Amino acid sequence: MIARRIISIATLLLAITACSKDPAESRVDANPERGKIALTQYACHACHVIPGITGSKVFVGPQLDGVASRPMIAGNLPNNTENLVAWIRHPKRIDPLTAMPDMGVTEEHARDMAAYLSTLK
Length: 121
Ligand code: HEC
Description:
Elements: H1 2-19, H2 23-26, H3 32-41, E1 72-73, E2 77-78, H4 81-89, H5 91-94, H6 107-117
Antiparallel strand pairs: 1-2
The structure holds heme C.
């Protein structure tokens, strides 16, 4: 009986320590391979031709090959990681008239996508 009680207390303590982990600690660095998957999952290729992502040739948005070498994003923002993430998450906040929709991309997914796009020089 006592042994069982000790085990259940130990399990409870383990569960508590697992939950109290700082969420900032569990954040991992942006990863281009995950970004590639996220670009497919959010169907960015429904409007963009993206090297390395299979899809039909649609040209609603600009082709994203060489996007890392362009000085500006969407003709609006200096091209850097923070601005790229901001554009991917909320294009309408930056340019209310853009045809690119806000797609509910999470910060983490946007960072992974930006990591992949930054390899397209
Ligand atoms: C409905 C079509 C559509 C979808 C879906 C879409 N985009 Fe766009 N995107 C556009 C258009 C149109 C532009 C050009 C905006 C402008 O220049 O004002 C653009 C611009 C961009 C640019 C800037 C390119 C440059 O050369 O300046 C990036 C980066 C981009 N989109 C990434 C994405 C990502 C990542 C996704 C998926 C989360 C996505 N887009 C989904 C239409 C779309």
